[in-house]
């Protein structure tokens, strides 16, 4: 695997984690928004990721590649966001007849956002982002060392 591939993979992972952090932030910001009907209430959103696969055959023919893959195998080449989906977990219905958003039966509807789950997801996304920053910094450092190999003589 070349350093450019490392940069591409880490960069796509950082972009994916940024989207994950943004959706988590949106979920937390809307966690306590009330609505008078189930059609209007905010629903938790989650990004859907998939691996981008690189065909090693295109790079190495039918032999074994540098990474040890035979010609017809796939290697991960990054992460892409396939979309953002709304959670199908049930909404929270509270009996609050005094609330200004209460329906005719006195119920108010709240989002299906679990603040605890969202905080855990935020910490995980943040750590994943930081790890990929470290990967990029390490690759950059390696590239700089390679460039200075012949200069010391």
Please tell me about this protein's structure.
There is one protein chain. The chain has 153 residues and is an alpha+beta fold. The chain has helices at 3-29, 57-60, 115-147, and strands spanning 45-55, 74-86, 92-95, 107-110. It has three helices and four strands, in the order H-E-H-E-E-E-H. The strands form two sheets. It has a two-stranded antiparallel ribbon with strand order 1-2. Strands 3-4 form a two-stranded antiparallel ribbon.
In summary, what is this structure?
This protein is α+β, with helices and mostly antiparallel strands and 153 residues long. It has helices spanning 3-29, 57-60, 115-147; strands at residues 45-55, 74-86, 92-95, 107-110. Helix 1 packs antiparallel against helix 3.
Which descriptors apply to this entry?
153 residues, alpha+beta, two-stranded antiparallel sheet, 3 helices
How far is it from the N-terminal to the C-terminal residue, by CA?
29 Å
Q: How many strand units?
A: 4
Strand content: 15-25%
Helical amount: 40-55%
Strand order of the biggest β-sheet: 1-2
Mean pLDDT: 85
Shape: elongated
SSE order and pairing:
Elements: H1 3-29, E1 45-55, H2 57-60, E2 74-86, E3 92-95, E4 107-110, H3 115-147
Antiparallel strand pairs: 1-2, 3-4
């Amino acid at each position: 695997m070349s350093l450019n591939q490392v940069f591409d993979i880490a960069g796509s992972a950082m972009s994916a984690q940024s989207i994950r952090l943004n959706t988590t932030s949106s979920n937390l910001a809307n966690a306590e928004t009330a609505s008078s009907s189930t059609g209007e209430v905010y629903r938790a959103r989650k990004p859907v990721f998939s691996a981008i696969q690189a065909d090693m055959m295109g790079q190495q023919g039918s032999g074994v590649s540098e990474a040890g893959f035979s010609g017809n195998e796939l290697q991960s080449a990054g992460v892409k966001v396939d979309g953002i989906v709304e959670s199908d977990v049930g909404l929270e219905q509270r009996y609050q007849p005094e609330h200004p958003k209460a329906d005719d039966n006195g119920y108010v509807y709240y989002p299906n956002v679990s603040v605890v789950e969202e905080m855990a997801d935020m910490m995980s996304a943040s750590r994943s982002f930081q790890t990929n920053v470290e990967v990029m910094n390490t690759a950059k450092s390696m590239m700089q060392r390679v460039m200075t190999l012949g200069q010391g003589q």
